[in-house]
Structures are given as C-alpha cells and as structure tokens.
C-alpha cells in the first residue's frame, strides 16, 4: 500500500491510499476542485478514484464529497449511523453510490476494519490491510479505550490525532468555555497527552511510523506536539528516529509512505 495525507485539521481532511488494484480516499473535506488539484500533484485523475471512505459527517471531512461523487460517479462508503447524520447533505450522491458497512469488509484487494470511536456525532476510524501490512487512521475522538487500541494495534503506520495542548486550550481567549469543554470532553478530540498514551501503546505493538494528525490551529503547534511525544517516549527509553518515526500532518500534502 501507498498512502499520503493531502490535508489534515479543521480546514479539511483528505487522505489518498493506493493498493495494487484500488485508489481510494479517506474523507473528502476540501472542495471538489481542491481535491482534484491535490490528486493532480500525484498524477491521479479524479475518475480513477474507486471509492471514498467517510469517517463522519463534519464538514472538515465531507465538504467536497457530494460534488465529487456526483461528478465522477464515485462510490461513497460510510457506516449506517454516519449516513443517518449525513444523508440530507448528500443529494448528489446517487443511491447506487451510497455504500454502507457494518463490520469488517473487503473492497477490491483491501481488507478494511472500521472502528467506532467516541465523537459528538457517529464517527469511525479505519484500519486498511493488504499483504500483511496494516495502516490505521484515527482522528476525531474524545478518548481511547482498550477496544479502540486493540483494533489498531500492530499497524505499521498510524495517522493519530493530536488535537490540542491542554494548557493552550484552557488559557486561550478565542474559544468560549462551552467549546473548550466540548473539545476536551469524552466525545471531543484527543489532547497531546491522550495521543501520547495511545502512541506509547502502539509502539509496544510494533508501530514504527506515526503521523500526528488533525492538530488544532488555535490550541497546538506542530513543534509542541512533536516535542511532547519525543520527550515522553524518551522517558520510556524509546528514541524518535530510531525506534519509531514521528511526522506531523498539516494542511499541506505530507509524506508519501510506501509499505511493501
Ligand atoms: Zn475533524
Ligand atoms: Zn469531527
């Protein structure tokens, strides 16, 4: 599999994944035009996209999906619970292209395990499997638990939310208290601290590449999140760049990872 994050964060989320026989998107949170432009950077035409997998209905994950699917006749996969919340906003997606799943399923040569995660609307992470390789995407969740962590364990590569620094969130003056409580609540987003706990577990299961994702523009910085992870890993004798590699996703296209 090959994978690249093309945009991450509250301005829009878009990830491109390619297997031997499929080219898919995870979320489509940029405008249709912008999605086409970013696929162009990879020399991928929009007609080549075989499917879009949605995590949840928030606009930063779905902004362009309706127009993209309508224009290029692309199947869109989402859990029934996600369709329930998203249905009204998706009138260009034909009934034939509305695909649903309940548990693990296959698409082309990919095996896919959806993982329900706690957010303020129905939300799913995904693990993708091909040829003994496993890639997981886990963003927009208020907390982790054993069920979630077990689902993504043993992934070679994980896109893992590190949304906010607790102090920046609480001391910031832009957000009202109610929003701060929602973000930091059990159905909001993962803090750097929560993300670290998941990261430490993942490394113990063999994960060797983590991309910190969905960072808040207001309440986190790439350096802060990266340094937090490195410092805490080092306290456990785990060295970034030696035992595990950590990147930080942004609103710009990131690194193209190839797992063979
Ligand atoms: Zn989001
Ligand atoms: Zn969300």
Figure out the total of helices.
9
List bound small molecules: zinc ion
Question: What's the overall geometry?
Answer: globular
- Give the overall pLDDT as a whole number: 97
- Major sheet characteristics: 7 strands, mixed
Query: Using only CA atoms, what is the Rg?
Result: 17 Å
Strand order, biggest sheet?
6-5-4-3-2-1-14
Beta content comes to 15-25%
Element pattern in H and E: EEEHEHHEHEEEEEHEHHHEHEE
Q: Architecture, CATH level 2?
A: 4-Layer Sandwich
Number-wise, the strands total 14
Distance between the first and last residues' Cα: 7 Å
Name the poorly predicted regions: none
Any idea of the CATH class?
A: Alpha Beta
Helix content: 25-40%
Outline the structure in words.
- With 260 residues, this protein is of the alpha/beta class.
- It has one domain (2-258): 4-Layer Sandwich (Metallo-beta-lactamase, Chain A).
- 30% of the residues lie in helices and 25% in strands.
- The chain contains nine helices and 14 strands.
- Strands 6-5-4-3-2-1-14 form a seven-stranded mixed sheet, covered by helices on one side.
- A hairpin with a 6-residue loop joins strand 1 (2-7) and strand 2 (14-18).
- Helix 8 (192-204) packs across helix 9.
- The protein starts with a strand and ends with a strand.
- The model has no long low-confidence stretch (mean pLDDT 97).
- The protein binds zinc ion (2 copies).
- Residues 10, 13, 58, 60-61, 140, 214 line the site of one zinc ion.
- One zinc ion is lined by residues 10, 13, 58, 60-61, 140, 214.
